[in-house]
Amino acid sequence: MTDATTDEDERDRASQEQPDPPAAVRVLLFAFCFALLLAGFYLMGLAFDNASITLFTIGILLSGGAFFVAMHRPER
Hints:
Elements: H1 3-17, H2 23-50, H3 53-71
């Protein structure tokens, strides 16, 4: 077997082992991440009005967490 064929076989096997989640799950995940992102932005804006570093930090963590959850794909 050639190296190209071996690489293609490995990619095919890896994609078969990790199927995409069902469409309903992806929509719910998007809605959850979008809500987290907007909540984080809201808290960051609210922190400026109240001069609170704690609210701003929580807003940063929520926004960052939304990106992490959306982009993270667990290895199996």
